[in-house]
C-alpha cells in the first residue's frame, strides 16, 4: 500500500492530520501505522495543544480494508490504534466531510468530538457482510446515542446523514463552512477544558435504565434472523455492555467479531461484495473506451417490461418515448406506468410533484418512426424472432446514426437480430429483469459485432439507471436463464422420480431462497415456460399437462398448487399429485423419496455444471459474474455467495461425483461434469482458482 500518508500540519497550536489513502481511505495496515505515528508525534510536540483528524477526498474513511480479513493480523491493529487515540492526553476532533463507515466511524468514535459537514454519512454497515463492528463500535456507539438507537443503527447497517447524526448525539456540530477550521476551533475549546473526555467515560457500563428498551428490540431482531449468527452476536455484545466493564465488553466484541470473520456465511457475503465490484471490469473495455452520449431514449413495447424500462429512464431524468403499434395498447401501458407511480405516492415513497415530473418525461407514441430522435432504443416487444427482425430492420432506416439499438430479449439470438440491421456494431442486449423498475440486475449482452463504445455506453447507462450491469455473451438464455432452464428441467425430473412440489419447494426455501421453484412458477405464470418450450421443442411432462388443463398458476387460481379465492400462498392439490404419479407411471418410473439435501443437489448442481460450460465458452468472464447474476436476479441466498461459490464450498470433486451419479441414473449425458468442472475437480481446485480462458 505504497503512497499511504497522513499529512501533518500545525495550525495555531492544533495538529491537523489529513488521511490520504485513495480511493476511500480504507484503514489498511499502512494507514493504521501512519495514524499511529502521526498521533504519537503530535502528542510529543509541546507546541501542539489539540489534534484534528481530517481526510483528503470526499470520503472520511470508507471502512476497514476488508481484503485483509482472514489474513494474518498485522500490528498495529485498529482496536489498539483507537485505544491510544481515545487515551490521548490532548483532545482529538474528527472532521467528517463525507462518509465515515465501519472502521471509519469507529475511528471517529474514538475521537473526543465529531464535527460533520452537510454531506457526511455515518454508519456501521458490518452487518451487511455478516459481521459486527470489531473495533469498539458496539461499545462506544451505545454510550453516545443510547443502546436502543445504537443497536438499531448497527442492525440496519444503514448510515445516518449529518442532521440526524447531530440530532441523535453522534456528532457534536454540523458545519456548513470550512470544516477543518471549525474542528480546529472546537478542538482548542476542548483543550481549554482540561483533560479530554472519552466516549467511554460516559459510563463504565451502559445505563441500566435503558436496558428494557434495548432487550425488546434485540429479542425481536434475533427472532427475525434465525440464519444470521451475526445478529445474535450483535445483541449479545451490546448486552455485554450492561453486564461488563468497557474493557471486558470490548474484548467480548473482538472475540465474537473474529469468530464471525471465519464463518462461511460472512466469507460468502464478502466474496459476493468483491465479485460484484469485479463485474465492472469488462474484458476489452477501459476508462479510455469512448462513450456515446445518451440524452434521450425510446422503448418499443409498453407491456410488462417496456413499461418498467420506461420508468427506469424517467426516474433517471432521461426523456423517453414509449412506442406501441396501436393506441389501445399504448393507453393501457401508459395507464399501468401511472398506476405504478401512484402506488409509490400512496406508500409515501414518492412525492406528488416528483411523480408529475417523471411522468412529464414519458411520451407515448404509435409507430416506430417516433424512435428517430432517440440516442438509445430499447426493444421490449413480443419474444418472437420474426417480430424482432422486422423491428430492427425498420430501425436501420429510422434510428439516427450512432443510436444504440438494444433488445430486452430473454432467449433469442442477438447476432441474428443484429443481422437484420445495417449497423450490427450498434446492437446489443439489455436484459432487464421483472419488474424492471425494481430489479437491480441487467445482463448487458455483447453480441459478436457489438462495438466497444456501444458496449461501454450500455454498461454506463445501466449504472445511470441505478442498475447493476453484468456483461455476458450471446447464447440461449444468456447466463441467468440458461442456468435456470437446467434447474427447471431438474425440477421436472424430481417430480417424475418421486418428489412432490411442496417437498421440492420446502427444500429450496430451507436452503435459503425466499420461494421454491414451483411456487415461483405459479407466481410468474406457467405459460411463460410453456411458450418457450413450444418454440424450442422442449418438453416438461408435468408442467405441460398443467398448462393444457388451463392451470397457469396464481392468475387462474390453480397451477402446481391451489389458490382458492385469490390466496397468495398455494395449498397442495391432490389432483396435481395424482397427475404427477400418473405421469411417472406412464414413463415407467418407480417413484422414491428424496431427502431435502438430495433435492437441493439434484436441482442446483446441474446449474453449476451449466455455469462451468458458460465459463468455458466465454459467455461470462468470471465465476463471480455468474454469482452476481444469481444473487441479484434470481434471489440466490446472499450468505451462500452464489452457485459457483457454493459449489466451491462443497468441493468440486464431490460436485463432479454427484453429477456423474445423476447422469448414470437418468441416462442424461448432459449431466456429466463439464470439462472445466472435471478438470478443476481432478486438480483439487476451485472455480475461484480458475484463471480464465
Ligand atoms: P408483453 O407481452 O407484456 O409486452 C409486449 C408489448 O410489445 C405489448 O404491449 C405489445 O403490444 C408490444 N408490441 C408487440 N409488437 C410490437 C411492435 N412491433 N412495435 C411496438 N410494440 C409492439 O411482454 P413482456 O413480458 O413485456 O416482454 C417483452 C420482451 O421482454 C420479450 O422479449 C421478453 O422475452 C422480454 N423479457 C420479459 C421478461 C418478463 O419477465 N416478462 C423478463 C425479461 C425479458
TrEMBL record:
Residues 297-473 form the 3-hydroxyacyl-CoA dehydrogenase NAD binding domain. InterPro entries: 3-OHacyl-CoA_DH_NAD-bd (IPR006176), 3HC_DH_C (IPR006108), 6-PGluconate_DH-like_C_sf (IPR008927), ClpP/crotonase-like_dom_sf (IPR029045), Enoyl-CoA_hydra/iso (IPR001753), NAD(P)-bd_dom_sf (IPR036291). It is found in: Peroxisome. SUPFAM superfamilies: 6-phosphogluconate dehydrogenase C-terminal domain-like, ClpP/crotonase, NAD(P)-binding Rossmann-fold domains. Keywords: Fatty acid metabolism, Isomerase, Lipid degradation, Lipid metabolism, Lyase, Multifunctional enzyme, NAD, Oxidoreductase, Peroxisome. It comes from the Bacteria. Monomer. Gene3D superfamilies: 1.10.1040.50, 2-enoyl-CoA Hydratase, Chain A, domain 1 (3.90.226.10), NAD(P)-binding Rossmann-like Domain (3.40.50.720). It catalyses: a (3S)-3-hydroxyacyl-CoA + NAD(+) = a 3-oxoacyl-CoA + NADH + H(+). Residues 477-563, 599-685 form the 3-hydroxyacyl-CoA dehydrogenase C-terminal domain. Pathway: Lipid metabolism; fatty acid beta-oxidation. PANTHER family: 3-HYDROXYACYL-COA DEHYROGENASE (PTHR23309), PEROXISOMAL BIFUNCTIONAL ENZYME (PTHR23309:SF49). It comes from Methylobacterium komagatae. This is 3-hydroxyacyl-CoA dehydrogenase NAD-binding domain-containing protein.
Amino acid at each position: 500500500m505504497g503512497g499511504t500518508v497522513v499529512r501533518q500540519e500545525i495550525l495555531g497550536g492544533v495538529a491537523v492530520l489529513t488521511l490520504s489513502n485513495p480511493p476511500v481511505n480504507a484503514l489498511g495496515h499502512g494507514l493504521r501505522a501512519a495514524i499511529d505515528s502521526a498521533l504519537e508525534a503530535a502528542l510529543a510536540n509541546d507546541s501542539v495543544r489539540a489534534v484534528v483528524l481530517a481526510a483528503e477526498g470526499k470520503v472520511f474513511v470508507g471502512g476497514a480494508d476488508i481484503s485483509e480479513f482472514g489474513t494474518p493480523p498485522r500490528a498495529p491493529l485498529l482496536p489498539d490504534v483507537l485505544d491510544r487515540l481515545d487515551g490521548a492526553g490532548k483532545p482529538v476532533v474528527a472532521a467528517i466531510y463525507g462518509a465515515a463507515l465501519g472502521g471509519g466511524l469507529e475511528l471517529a468514535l474514538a475521537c473526543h468530538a465529531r464535527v460533520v459537514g452537510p454531506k457526511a454519512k455515518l454508519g456501521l454497515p458490518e452487518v451487511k457482510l455478516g459481521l459486527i463492528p470489531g473495533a469498539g463500535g458496539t461499545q462506544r456507539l451505545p454510550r453516545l446515542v443510547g443502546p436502543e438507537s445504537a443497536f438499531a443503527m448497527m442492525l440496519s447497517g444503514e448510515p445516518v446523514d449529518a442532521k440526524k447524526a447531530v440530532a441523535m448525539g453522534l456528532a457534536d456540530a454540523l458545519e456548513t463552512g470550512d470544516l477543518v477550521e471549525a474542528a480546529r476551533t472546537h478542538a482548542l475549546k476542548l483543550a481549554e477544558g482540561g483533560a479530554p473526555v472519552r466516549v467511554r467515560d460516559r459510563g463504565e457500563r451502559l445505563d441500566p435504565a435503558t436496558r428494557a428498551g434495548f432487550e425488546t428490540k434485540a429479542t425481536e431482531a434475533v427472532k427475525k434472523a434465525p440464519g444470521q449468527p451475526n445478529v445474535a452476536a450483535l445483541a449479545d455484545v451490546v448486552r455485554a455492555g450492561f453486564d461488563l466493564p468497557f474493557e471486558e465488553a470490548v474484548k467480548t466484541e473482538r472475540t465474537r467479531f473474529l469468530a464471525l470473520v471465519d464463518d462461511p456465511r460472512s466469507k460468502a457475503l464478502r466474496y459476493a461484495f468483491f465479485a460484484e465490484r469485479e463485474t465492472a471490469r469488462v474484458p476489452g473495455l477501459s476508462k479510455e473506451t469512448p462513450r456515446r452520449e445518451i440524452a434521450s431514449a425510446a422503448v418499443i413495447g409498453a407491456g410488462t417490461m417496456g413499461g418498467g424500462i420506461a420508468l427506469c429512464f424517467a426516474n433517471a431524468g432521461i426523456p423517453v418515448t414509449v412506442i406501441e403499434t396501436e393506441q389501445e395498447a399504448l393507453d393501457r401501458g401508459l395507464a399501468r406506468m401511472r398506476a405504478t407511480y401512484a402506488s409509490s405516492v400512496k406508500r409515501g415513497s414518492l412525492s406528488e410533484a416528483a411523480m408529475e415530473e417523471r411522468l412529464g418525461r414519458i411520451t407515448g407514441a404509435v409507430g416506430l418512426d417516433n424512435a428517430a430522435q432517440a440516442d438509445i432504443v430499447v426493444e421490449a416487444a413480443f419474444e418472437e424472432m420474426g417480430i424482432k427482425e422486422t423491428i430492427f430492420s425498420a430501425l436501420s432506416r429510422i434510428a439516427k446514426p450512432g443510436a444504440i439499438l438494444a433488445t430486452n430479449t430473454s432467449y433469442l439470438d442477438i447476432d441474428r437480430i443484429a443481422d437484420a440491421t445495417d449497423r450490427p456494431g450498434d446492437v446489443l442486449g439489455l436484459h432487464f429483469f421483472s419488474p424492471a423498475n425494481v430489479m437491480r440486475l441487467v445482463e448487458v449482452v455483447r453480441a459478436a459485432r457489438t462495438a466497444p463504445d456501444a458496449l461501454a455506453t450500455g454498461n454506463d447507462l445501466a449504472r445511470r439507471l441505478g442498475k447493476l450491469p453484468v456483461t455476458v455473451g450471446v447464447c440461449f438464455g444468456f447466463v441467468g436463464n440458461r442456468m435456470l432452464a437446467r434447474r427447471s428441467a431438474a425440477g421436472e425430473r424430481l417430480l417424475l422420480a418421486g418428489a412432490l412440489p411442496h417437498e421440492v419447494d420446502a427444500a429450496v426455501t430451507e436452503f435459503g431462497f425466499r420461494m421454491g421453484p414451483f411456487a415461483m412458477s405459479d407466481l410468474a405464470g406457467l405459460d411463460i415456460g410453456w411458450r418457450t418450450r413450444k418454440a424450442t421443442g422442449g418438453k416438461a411432462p408435468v408442467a405441460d399437462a398443467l398448462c393444457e388443463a388451463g392451470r397457469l398458476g396464481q392468475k387462474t387460481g390453480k397451477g402446481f398448487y391451489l389458490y382458492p379465492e385469490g390466496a397468495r400462498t398455494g395449498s397442495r392439490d391432490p389432483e396435481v399429485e395424482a397427475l404427477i404419479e400418473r405421469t411417472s407411471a406412464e414413463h415407467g418410473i418407480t417413484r422414491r423419496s428424496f431427502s431435502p439435501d438430495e433435492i437441493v443437489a439434484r436441482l442446483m448442481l446441474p446449474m453449476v455444471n451449466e455455469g462451468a460450460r458458460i465459463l468455458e465458452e466465454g459467455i461470462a468472464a468470471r465465476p463471480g459474474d455468474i454469482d452476481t447474476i444469481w444473487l441479484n436476479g434470481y434471489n440466490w441466498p446472499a450468505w451462500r455467495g452464489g452457485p459457483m461459490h457454493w459449489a466451491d464450498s462443497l468441493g468440486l470433486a464431490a460436485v463432479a461425483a454427484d453429477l456423474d451419479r445423476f447422469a448414470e441414473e437418468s441416462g442424461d449425458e448432459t449431466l456429466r461434469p463439464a470439462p472445466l468442472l472435471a478438470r478443476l475437480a481432478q486438480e483439487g481446485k476451485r472455480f475461484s482458482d480458475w484463471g480464465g480462458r
